[in-house]
Amino acid sequence: MAICILNGLAMDAEVHGRTECESPSLPLTFVLTKLDVTDKVLEVSYQIRNDSDREAWLCQGLGSNVPRFSSEVAMSEDGETLLVRRRLDVPIAGFGEQVFGRFVRIPRGVSREETVFFALPVRPHRIILSARRRDETIKYVKQLRIEIGYYSGDLPATIAHMLEDAARAPEREHVDDMGYPTDTIGWFGDPLYFNRLNEIVPDRNEQVVVPWTDQMFEGEQLLQASIEHLHVPYVEDVGFVDFAVEGLKDCTRAEIHYRPSMLEYLFPHPIQQSVLTSADRQHLQMQKVLLLEDRISIGALIDEVGKANGWITCSGCAFGGRSTLAHVVCYQGHERITSFSIYGDMAVVTDEGHCYQSLPTLSSVRAITSAVDWVEPIRLRVECAANLSKLWYRLRLYRQIGRLAIEDTSPREQVAYPSSERWCDAMLCVFQIAEHTVKAYQCPGAGEGRCHYAMNSNCGADSPREMVLLFETKAGWNQHGGPELFTFDNHDAQGGCVLLNDGTVKFIRTEQELHTLHWK
Questions:
Q1: Residue 23 has what pLDDT?
Q2: In the predicted model, is pLDDT for residue 20 greater than 50?
Q3: What residue segments make up the domains of the chain, in order of their start?
Q4: Could you please report the per-residue DSSP string of 351-409?
Q5: Angle, nearest 10°, between helix axes 191-198 and 155-167?
Q6: Contact, 58 vs 48, CB < 8 A?
Q7: SS3 label, residue 157
Q8: What mean pLDDT is predicted for residues 56-68?
Q9: Burial letters for 295-311: b for 16+ Cβ neighbours within 10 Å, e otherwise?
Q10: Are 329 and 347 a contacting pair, CB within 8 Å?
Q11: What is the average pLDDT score of the chain?
Q12: Three-class DSSP labels, 273-300
């Protein structure tokens, strides 16, 4: 367990400093960079540094409603310590919905910055913690304790190996007669379930969703930090509120300011940026502000952010890493009437200091930005690349899931692709027909068609990592062959995506690029 303590910080001071930790060799360390409070909100900013020689996977949040994840916040039994917790390796009192945690990768030698908002008075947000009776009495927090779980090493690989080992013994039961899990595999489910769970993740090289396992999945370590000498109000009452940004209904013109730029706002993940050209990246980075003057876009913004219900007060809303931020400034004519920031498509912080979280995702600013004429083709290309990435994970699981379906326990290789002549049919048979399954076969920019991808007939699971596995083609089904089937016409500007055998997706713009790829 890593423990970092900060003492003697006045609640109204802005602090820049380092923590004093028990050991300089701790895997992760916590550095407080800002502690600020107004009469409406407490804001805590910090860095989490990975000083170890291995990557770490940090719990970014918990949730029973995937893909919404957040911290747990509640007053401790001592009535003075506010616990802010993101951990899975803890017990649950009673029965409820299945809980999941989202873990994010911190490479060795890298720091992750986070900011946490608490609307005042602080209110509880419990996911695993036991519920308490409502109490409107104001209490005061004297100490803030942050607990964050993490794993050292390659967490997705650890899980994959565990599921592979379980697949070799399908006769073993992992749930009791009532269907309740009896071991770690019972909680994780089979590879098909775990893969579906993680298809919501935008970049599986950087994030993974893990189920709560009743403390059966071992290895979670604890990063803990304490901030003392506080005097912050707290009330034991869930903060459902009616809220609307003041003056928003009078808006006739708006500016969306992207922090730091439109590139990071729309495409924050490396796997998304990998299919952008250098010109795309440069142009997106230059876009800092988008001016809205059309009534339809402004109306969509007013309808979403100006609604009076569906809000709760922010309690431990944490944003960091690649969380997106857009600052919206609204005008009536030439007069500035209001402004607010949208964090991570889920929370609004007004310039007056109000901090609220929307229960439905805040999608209007992202939709407005993505609909810009020159942005939409890039968005469609990124979505096409995401489809190929999903298909890569499914192809790597094809043999495992197929063997589970027929209870095949023979000692054959765990990874093998279907025959290229019927790869689409074979995949749908194994992965079951469902809307989310079929959608991944269709390039979003190519128009009508059941499938816009073909399999390289020469590529197998044991082929070189850089060999082409799937590539874009015209609409069809079970298409297979080589570069003669590749099309440059599914996208604007012209080009097409290819998936390599190691899971890398590339966007190919020219015939020369196409023929330099490894096809045999």
A1: 40
A2: no
A3: 2-236, 240-370, 376-516
A4: TTS-EEEESS---HHHHHHHTSTTTHHHHHHHHHHHHHHHHHHHHHHHHHHHHHHHT--
A5: 150
A6: yes
A7: helix
A8: 86
A9: eebbebbbebbbbeeeb
A10: no
A11: 87
A12: HCCCCHHHHHHHHHCCEEEECCHHHHHH
83-118 confidence digits (pLDDT tens): 999 999 999 876 678 899 999 999 999 999 999 999
Rounded Cα–Cα distance for residues 520 and 513 (Å):
15
CA-based nearest residue to 514, from 475, 474, 486 = 486
- What one-letter code names the amino acid at 174? H
Angstrom CA distances, 324 to 200, 272, 295, 402, 413, stand at 17, 14, 25, 39, 42
Angle at 79 between CA 76 and CA 83, to 5 degrees: 30
pLDDT at 285 over 90: yes
Distant-in-sequence, close-in-space partners of 235: CB < 8 Å, separation ≥ 6: 121, 122, 123, 135, 136, 137, 138, 139
The DSSP bridge partners found for residue 223 are 2, 148
Residue 456 confidence (pLDDT)? 98
Pairing of strands 451-456, 480-481: parallel
Which pLDDT score is estimated for 8?
Answer: 34
Q: Say how far apart CA 238 and CA 240 lie, in whole Å.
A: 6
Q: Sheet harboring 315-320: ordered strands across?
A: 28-37, 41-50, 111-119, 315-320
Q: What is the mean pLDDT of residues 22-39?
A: 79
Length, in residues, of the chain: 520
CB 480 within 8 A of CB 454: yes
What pLDDT score was predicted for residue 346? 86
pLDDT digits (tens, 9 = 90+) for 451-461: 999 999 999 99
Residue 145 pairs with which residues in a beta bridge?
A: 83, 226
Residue 67 pLDDT level (bands cut at 50, 70, 90):
low
What pLDDT score was predicted for residue 95? 60
**Listed range (49-63, 136-150, 393-407) with the worst mean pLDDT:** 393-407
**Quick one: which H or E segment has residue 455?**
strand 451-456
Angle between helices 155-167 and 376-406 (to 10 degrees): 30
pLDDT at 407 over 70: no
Distance between CA atoms of 266 and 345, rounded to whole angstroms? 11
Residue 379 one-letter amino acid:
R
Q: What angle do CA 115, 119, 122 make, to 5 degrees?
A: 105
Q: What are the helix (H) ranges across 176-288?
A: 184-188, 191-198, 262-266, 270-273, 278-286
Give the angle subtended at the CA of 150 by the CAs of 356 and 229, to the nearest 5°: 55
User: Cis peptide leading into 418, omega within 30 of 0?
Assistant: no
Helix (H) or strand (E) holding 435: helix 435-439
Place of tokens 């970092």: 4
419-458 pLDDT, tens digit per residue, is: 999 999 999 888 775 655 688 999 999 988 999 999 999 9
Other CB atoms within a 10 A radius of the CB of residue 53 amount to: 9
Under a CB-based contact definition with an 8 Å cutoff, are residues 106 and 56 in contact? Answer: yes
